[in-house]
Amino acid sequence: MLNEDVLTYIEKLIPDRPQYVKEIEEYAEQHDVPIMEKSSIEVLLLLLSMQQPKKIVEIGTAIGYSAIRMALKLPNTEIYTVELDEERYHQANLNIKEMGLEKQVHTFHGDALSLSDQLNDYGPFDALFIDATKAKYTKFFGLYEPMLSENGIVYTDNVLFKGTVARDRAELKTRRQRTLVRKLNEYNHWLFTLDNYETTIIPVGDGIAITKRK
């Protein structure tokens, strides 16, 4: 993981975002809503701009921050995004509408594990972005990976969980943290064992895994 000085330096180099995007960032900070870190979203957007996917399915809308950033970066891309939390789902819709992106970003409310059949009707997808309940990452991957196009890529955020995956779990304070880190470790190791995929992890923000067919 990058140290704080390096992260601060990198974030100062990032070009200014549109005013409403900055307001969403401020809202997330004030209301303790987890959104992608500034350095992470820039890496993801660069990777997506190189890939140029026509359709993206996102697991974990939160308040729409990453979906909006992807839509602004990729105006010819359709984004299908799922959020379990009702309050965040409604806030995401407000933010998406405010940006005039409701025809490009399609939101779904509910558990992504239960909505896979419904989302499958909109595939195939060229990119799968997983950024929801970390303990369910393997299940999300298993359900949505078959919906990918031939050259589809899976992007997973938070796979390093602020570096805790590299620490001795006995050092973690709560049982929930230990369970979460164990499941993330299992997911990361599992990604690297997939015969038909290759994976790399970029240690920026909370860590992004990129998984691509061989």
UniProtKB/TrEMBL annotation:
The protein's enzyme class: transferase
EC numbers, comma separated: 2.1.1.-
This protein's record includes keyword Kinase: no
Annotated positions binding Mg(2+): D131, D157, N158
Catalytic reactions on record: 5-hydroxyuridine(34) in tRNA + S-adenosyl-L-methionine = 5-methoxyuridine(34) in tRNA + S-adenosyl-L-homocysteine + H(+)
Organism field: Metabacillus rhizolycopersici
InterPro entries: Cation-dep_OMT, SAM-dependent_MTases_sf, SAM_O-MeTrfase, TrmR_methyltr
Keywords of the record: Magnesium, Metal-binding, Methyltransferase, S-adenosyl-L-methionine, Transferase, tRNA processing
Entries under Pfam families matching the protein: Methyltransf_3 (PF01596)
Protein's job: Catalyzes the methylation of 5-hydroxyuridine (ho5U) to form 5-methoxyuridine (mo5U) at position 34 in tRNAs.
Subunit structure: Homodimer.
Name this polypeptide is given: tRNA 5-hydroxyuridine methyltransferase
Binding site for S-adenosyl-L-methionine: M36, S66, E83, D111, A112, D131
Transferase among keywords: yes
SUPFAM superfamilies: S-adenosyl-L-methionine-dependent methyltransferases
Similarity-based family: Belongs to the class I-like SAM-binding methyltransferase superfamily. Cation-dependent O-methyltransferase family.
